[in-house]
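Hey, quick one: can you model this chain's 3D structure?
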Amino acid sequence: MADGGQRHVRVAVIGSGFGGLGAAVRLRRQGITDFVVLERADAVGGTWRDNSYPGCACDVPSHLYSFSFAPNPDWPRNFSGQRHIRAYLERVTDTFGLRPHIRFNAEVRALRWDTERLWWEIDTARGAYTADVVVSATGPLSDPQIPDVPGMADFTGKVFHSARWDHDYDLSGKRVAMVGTGASAIQIVPEIQPRVGTLTVFQRTPPWVMPRADRRITAVERWLHTKVPATRELRRQLLWGIRELQVSAFTKRPDELGLIEAIARSHMRKVIKDPAMRARLTPDYRIGCKRILLSNSWYPALAQPNVDLVSSGLREIRGNTLVAADGSEAEVDAIIFGTGFHVTDMPIAHRVTGANGTTLAEEWKDGMAALRGSSAAGFPNFLTIIGPNTGLGNSSMILMIEAQLNYLADFMRRLDVLGGGIALDARPSAVEEWTRTIQQRMRRTVWNTGGCDSWYLDANGRNTTAWPGTTGEFRRVTRQVDLAEYEVLRPPRTAAETGRRTVEEVAA
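Sure thing. Here's the predicted structure for all 508 residues.
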């Protein structure tokens, strides 16, 4: 149906990053073609479309940061840049024939569950849809977070977030402030330092930074990976296995991370010779508590004469003067915020209204919670890709996404077995039990015991972001849907005519 009308689809996928495109591929491989991918932008790519700042690259090896069903033998580097990752996603879109399903510039403004028809009503910027199933793949790194700094409205210079880089603004010779020292900032600073006039870096908390074992992948390697696919798969499996072995140190025995800390300290000492400067750059928390960053150029950039490291956060702005919490001041022409994203308070949650008439944000006011990282109670036939407690601290999120795609595939199979017009709603007791188990395991992890305040934690101090286990374990627990964890919903008219089948009858 043309834009502006209402159309019913079996599945609506929100977002066209790794999660959304992966869901679309999996649906097609299941034989499901009656679906749309609703994308608010004008191109696919998700975070790899939005983050185009100088130096943007992945901190997971390329051969592990790609779909198992869409291997790429031609990755140019161990850690490929944004341009190559985005090109890979465009290629996946075309290879699997996804473009006819994608609706660009179709931002989802509201979703509401219809308890009578058992489907989702979806309001988008390109018209209305209804869908039996909704897959939310908006991702936790999609909506930039800029702090509300007093005096911001009076600043007359240029302001933008790292994920909304203004390529038309020339930084050459400018006095620039970089607010934040996270994963984006440590890539941006070395790239812009040589061409700006002065660069003031506002560091609230120093990160642990490890060497980045990056290099070009040779033509011989790429040829071998193309002609002998087993070599490409072996490389992927080795990268995966090494990271699986590291998990216990993060989740069960944080004290074992001391050796990693020693490597990070040595990495800093090789460049930063001033003891006072090293002290300002040395974290006071256990490595791994916050995201471990990889860079060979971060410390050399900070050591340059046109860079000033301010060891406290930005407190206020007076005209074009930035004032730090320690009282130091810097007059600048441009402010770049590398201050992260809305991770534990995802904006999409405010737009989703479930069976009880409450939004997902309201249900999650005390912390995000979803069965197996996918299903929230009271939101039937609504699955989240990269949902609560699915994040990783040391491996590839693509592995977690593919595990959730397995769960999605089995969810659709279960609906087929149950018959048309059926919905599955996660039982509150199942969500509570899953969440309780996760939080119990979380108590001994480095994210909870390492002595830091990270974006893994929500406003209540609960870790609702990370997964406290291996990717292999997560793949096992999401291999199939356990119908005992769901309530089977049928339209009233169908229930009156045919009676309601119990979960036990269906499972049998």
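One thing worth noting: The mean pLDDT is 93.
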